[in-house]
């Protein structure tokens, strides 16, 4: 069976969920061979094997942490050269897309970004994308070279499928470009204890209707009752009520959770662009004519200051 390279996103050996989802998709088109780079790369092997990786290629070097993406591209290309895979799958983070694009240019291949599904096809893997505020679903395949495909988080279920996961050291020679852009400092973001916005299975967002930073507590309380991440519209972010890192939309983050709850958000096209692929969309808005209601699976016409606390209470009561 053809091998499929899966680029591993991990933090000190802890594999992030989107990579496990990629393994589910990779198994549909071949045998997953994982590529884990940087500190703790070898510690990823158990989780990757548990989810179907037949092999785990690992490399660690100071370059991965000290410079921007090029050393990682060099390593992924070394894995590509060693394996000659049928496809290369990369998580659709900002970094993942840059790595994938650079690899595709280097190996002369077509690339598909932000896929939301993937299936085997007679002429290579077929990727599904969602376009124009979810007005269109497209299917496409790469017609030149080895398909390089980035896949959005939450596009597939994580499935256990134990495989050998044999660890092999990957030999990487860094290109002259690798050390072109040095990381000069790092400031870790303060942890909220909530899941990462782009990876969360549930996102609860607030918009201008929340009417003040001090009121975002009710959005956070609903998020916490559901174990969700908190998002915000640009109007809420521009007003200084919530950090830009939580902005959902065209100029913010793109999310694709199982459940997206929009509170006091009108549903402007630029907001929709960042959440249109959410599986189930719920909106709370006091204006029955708000465009967000064109998009939702469930809508509540009502005042969020009444609806959201009641919802939180109900969720907490049912958990109890
Ligand atoms: C180039 C460009 C890029 C942009 N990028 C983004 C982006 O990344 N993300 C983004 O979100 N926007 C983006 N925007 C802005 C976008 O066009 C909208 O202005 C913005 O999304 C509106 O935010 P909102 O829905 O919170 O506010 P509004 O459009 O003002 O809507 C507020 C909603 O809250 C409802 N409401 C008010 N009070 C209550 C209440 N008590 N209970 C219930 N409902 C209530 C109202 O009925 C209304 O529907 C961008 C715009 C441009 C031009």
UniProtKB/TrEMBL annotation:
<keyword id="KW-0249">Electron transport</keyword>
<dbReference type="InterPro" id="IPR018206">
    <property type="entry name" value="ETF_asu_C_CS"/>
</dbReference>
<keyword id="KW-0813">Transport</keyword>
<protein>
    <submittedName>
        <fullName>Electron transfer flavoprotein subunit alpha</fullName>
    </submittedName>
</protein>
<dbReference type="InterPro" id="IPR014729">
    <property type="entry name" value="Rossmann-like_a/b/a_fold"/>
</dbReference>
<dbReference type="Pfam" id="PF00766">
    <property type="entry name" value="ETF_alpha"/>
</dbReference>
<dbReference type="InterPro" id="IPR033947">
    <property type="entry name" value="ETF_alpha_N"/>
</dbReference>
<comment type="function">
    <text>The electron transfer flavoprotein serves as a specific electron acceptor for other dehydrogenases. It transfers the electrons to the main respiratory chain via ETF-ubiquinone oxidoreductase (ETF dehydrogenase).</text>
</comment>
<comment type="similarity">
    <text>Belongs to the ETF alpha-subunit/FixB family.</text>
</comment>
<comment type="subunit">
    <text>Heterodimer of an alpha and a beta subunit.</text>
</comment>
<feature type="domain" description="Electron transfer flavoprotein alpha/beta-subunit N-terminal">
    <location>
        <begin position="4"/>
        <end position="183"/>
    </location>
</feature>
<dbReference type="InterPro" id="IPR029035">
    <property type="entry name" value="DHS-like_NAD/FAD-binding_dom"/>
</dbReference>
<dbReference type="InterPro" id="IPR001308">
    <property type="entry name" value="ETF_a/FixB"/>
</dbReference>
<keyword id="KW-0285">Flavoprotein</keyword>
<dbReference type="InterPro" id="IPR014731">
    <property type="entry name" value="ETF_asu_C"/>
</dbReference>
<dbReference type="Pfam" id="PF01012">
    <property type="entry name" value="ETF"/>
</dbReference>
<keyword id="KW-0274">FAD</keyword>
<dbReference type="InterPro" id="IPR014730">
    <property type="entry name" value="ETF_a/b_N"/>
</dbReference>
């Amino acid at each position: 069976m053809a091998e499929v390279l899966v680029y591993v996103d991990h933090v000190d050996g802890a594999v992030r969920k989107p990579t496990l989802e990629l393994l589910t998709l990779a198994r549909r088109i071949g045998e997953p061979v994982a590529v884990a780079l940087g500190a703790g790369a070898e510690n990823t092997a158990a989780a990757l094997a548990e989810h179907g990786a037949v092999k785990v290629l690992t490399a660690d070097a100071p370059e991965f942490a000290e410079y921007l993406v090029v050393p990682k591209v060099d390593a992924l290309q070394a894995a590509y050269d060693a394996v000659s895979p049928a496809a290369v799958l990369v998580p659709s983070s900002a970094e993942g897309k840059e790595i994938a694009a650079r690899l595709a240019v280097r190996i002369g291949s077509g690339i598909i970004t932000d896929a939301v599904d993937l299936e085997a096809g007679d002429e290579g893997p077929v990727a599904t994308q969602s376009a124009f505020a979810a007005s269109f679903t497209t299917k496409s395949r790469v017609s030149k070279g080895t398909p390089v495909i980035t896949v959005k988080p939450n596009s597939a279920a994580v499935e256990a499928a134990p495989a050998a996961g044999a660890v092999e050291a990957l030999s990487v020679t860094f290109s002259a470009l690798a050390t072109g852009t040095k990381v000069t400092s790092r400031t870790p973001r303060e942890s909220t204890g909530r899941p990462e916005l782009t990876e969360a299975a549930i996102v609860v967002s607030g918009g201008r209707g929340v009417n003040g930073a001090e009121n975002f507590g009710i959005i956070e309380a609903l998020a916490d009752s559901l174990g969700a991440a908190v998002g915000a519209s640009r109007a809420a972010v521009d007003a200084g009520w919530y950090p830009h890192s939580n902005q959902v939309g065209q100029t913010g983050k793109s999310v694709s959770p199982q459940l997206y709850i929009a509170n006091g958000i009108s549903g402007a096209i630029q907001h929709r662009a960042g959440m249109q692929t959410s599986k189930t969309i719920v909106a709370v808005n006091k204006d029955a004519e708000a465009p967000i209601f064109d998009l939702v699976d469930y809508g509540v016409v009502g005042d969020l200051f009444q609806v959201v606390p009641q919802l939180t209470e109900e969720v907490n009561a049912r958990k109890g």
